[in-house]
Specification:
Length: about 290
């Protein structure tokens, strides 16, 4: 089917903004031209792509399917254009990174500082999502690479994974649980205590649930949050035993102690993941080489 790329570009902007007027501003064409282009595309595909009313515009199921394929293609074209314009220099362009709040705060900040010092003209965009959500951003071509915890169920076979560092997850508690100090306990005993952990959308939650399932135990957390820092804060005031990566705990932490387990938990990795189907910008190559 021979369809002009410009029609797909118009569709992409309308689908992203859910507004014909906003799409016309982004494309520097009239609103009627936007509307006409969408009608032509719908006729060529023999599908209705948008539901239109006086108050709102929304995608049809068919429109959502098309957007899922068009978005990576548009991003791929943009990356190609940017790479040509950069001409292998780092005097401009963009660096797009996907990473969780925890990884940004406890790992990436010094690297971002150093990269910006070396290449001040490169625009840095960091998208904060869970590690699983970052894998989806990578698949869609919305980031150049993602720094994620690993294993990560969101990463596919088309994504190249490079290990940056290894870490361990630990259980930490305050003096409310002093009876656990100086001894080790099994997971079956631990599950009877209030456990504080990340929510189900995280790789950390997947990891801990898989450990408990391997021991044929049910894990029912007391509190689930989306922030390791909040989990640590709640552990400090005695609301429960928090499960967090060891690199989140300050070296001189005085209010928390590590709860020892009979069986050591396997280590996890922090990785830089990239989509091999997409080109990697000069800025992204340089940043990854710094890690």
């Amino acid at each position: 089917m021979d369809i002009n790329y410009e029609l797909y570009k118009v569709f992409y902007h309308v689908a992203n903004t859910l507004s014909f007027s906003e799409a016309s501003k982004q494309l520097f064409i009239s609103q009627s031209a936007v509307s006409q282009s969408v009608k032509v595309l719908e006729k060529k595909l023999n599908q209705t792509l948008f539901l239109r009313s006086t108050k709102r515009v929304q995608l049809t199921p068919e429109g959502e399917i098309l957007l899922k394929h068009i978005e990576p293609a548009i991003n791929l074209i943009r990356q190609g254009e940017n790479q040509l314009l950069e001409a292998n220099t780092l005097n401009g362009g963009q660096l797009r990174i996907g990473a969780s709040d925890t990884i940004c705060r406890y790992y990436l900040v010094p690297y971002l500082k150093e990269f910006h010092r070396r290449y001040p003209n490169v625009h840095i965009k960091v998208t904060n999502q869970t590690s699983i959500a970052c894998a989806r951003l990578l698949e869609a071509g919305q980031v150049d690479f993602a720094i994620t915890n690993y294993p990560n169920s969101g990463l596919s076979n088309t994504q190249n994974v490079r290990i940056i560092q290894e870490f361990h997850d630990i259980f930490v508690a305050n003096e409310e649980f002093s009876q656990l100090k100086g001894r080790s306990i099994c997971l079956e005993e631990l599950k009877d205590y209030p456990i504080l952990m990340l929510d189900r959308k995280s790789t950390t939650s997947e990891f801990l649930h898989s450990i408990f399932q391997r021991h044929q135990l049910d894990l029912v957390p007391e509190i689930e949050l989306s922030s390791n820092d909040l989990l640590i804060d709640l552990a400090r005031i005695g609301l429960g035993i928090a499960f967090v990566p060891d690199y989140c705990i300050p070296t001189r932490e005085q209010n928390l102690f590590t709860v020892q387990l009979d069986e050591a938990l396997p280590a996890r990795q922090m990785v830089a993941a990239r989509n091999e189907a997409l080109p990697l910008s000069q800025a992204a190559r340089q940043f990854i080489s710094m890690l």
